[in-house]
Amino acid sequence: MPELLRPQGPAAISMSHVSKIYHSDEEGDRTALADINLDIAVGDIFGIIGLSGAGKSTLVRCINGLETYQGGSLRVRGQEVSTLDAKGLRQLRQRTGMIFQHFNLMPSRTLLGNVELPLANTGMTRRQRTERAQELLDLVGLSQLAQSYPGELSGGQQQRVAIARALANRPDILLSDEATSALDPNTTKSILALLRDLHDRLGITVVLITHEMAVVRQICNRLAVIDQGRIVEEGRVFDVFAKPQAALTRSFVATTSNLDKVNDLVEQDSPIVHLEPGQVLLKMSYLSKAVNQAVVSTISREFDVDVNIIFGDVDVVEGSQLGGLVVRLEGSADHVSAALDYMRNQQIGIEVLNRG
Ligand SMILES: Nc1ncnc2c1ncn2[C@@H]1O[C@H](COP(=O)(O)OP(=O)(O)OP(=O)(O)O)[C@@H](O)[C@H]1O
């Protein structure tokens, strides 16, 4: 969603100074969340990324009231979660769907039976429940398999059933806890595309917990990076990818790009990166959404500098190009220097890796 269109009204989820400490007689206290401040707006697809043990699952479990928190304020749709009674918690969970890494389907029930489960005790007749479940299976592209059992399905199909089940009570928030971590890359892509489509069609806010930056890049508009229970970076996906600040964020961003491979090639003295006198090995990356797209042809034409592309990794994120190129520049010293100045002015990040 374009930043200007982000709703200014109450956040879907708002956290201020939230902390969570697990007490254990054997292992002592363990701080899982420390001073978390985060606003997730209505309509966001918000990625929360961190390494194993960072506190991601604890965070989502606090959001839907499965865990208590000790300090700060955590509001979902404006309501403080810690003050909800049993009925309030039930309503919170009905309006907050959740999907998991291992799908958590009931093996003894058909797909229809699984999707019908959350509709029990909602005042719907049996027929209404069946119709609704059929409609949901249709929504995730599995209406033909209503009478099959989870064990007969692939992982991606099982996750689709889990998504249908999570949407049964028409939630306006969907929490996804590592929902694609057990899936292969192609299935991951199709599940993320489904989540994006459901977000667009139903207007739901999605909170996506993951340890994979490529997942964030594919569908999120904002993200927060969590490290040892603390948020170390937060912002729009494009901005964080273009200019990651924290060391952990930089290492996550590096996992999504092949550009850093060039450092290994330089170290190994590979012929691919050998330079003749006067040549420059350069990493160029997009730092802004407003980059002049003809930058390569402009520098060769205007500055009489040859540009030889060694690696390329450009993707479209939030409608703008993101990523960069590793190139070998060749020209007179003055021309190369003028071309570098030109690129800096065009909001291209430049890093001279080596000079011949
Ligand atoms: N029930 C619990 N009792 C005690 N400590 C816990 C409990 N649940 C989590 N922790 C601890 O809290 C910290 C955060 O765990 P959490 O599961 O939230 O992290 P995570 O980022 O989701 O990791 P993973 O991706 O491995 O699930 C860890 O140090 C973990 O050992």
Automatic annotation (TrEMBL):
Q: Pinpoint the ABC transporter domain residues.
A: 13-253
Report keywords, A-Z. Answer: Amino-acid transport, ATP-binding, Cell membrane, Membrane, Nucleotide-binding, Translocase, Transport
Superkingdom field: Bacteria
One MF term in the entry's GO annotations: ATP binding
| PROSITE patterns noted in UniProt | ABC_TRANSPORTER_1, ABC_TRANSPORTER_2
Protein's UniProt keywords contain Chloroplast? no
Against InterPro entries, the record matches this protein to: AAA+_ATPase, ABC_transporter-like_ATP-bd, ABC_transporter-like_CS, ACT-like_dom_sf, MetN_ABC, MetN_ABC_transporter-like, NIL_domain, P-loop_NTPase
> Gene3D superfamilies annotated for this entry?
3.30.70.260, P-loop containing nucleotide triphosphate hydrolases
- The name this protein carries in UniProt is Methionine import ATP-binding protein MetN
What is the species listed in this Swiss-Prot or TrEMBL entry? Answer: Bombiscardovia nodaiensis
Q: Which gene encodes it?
A: metN
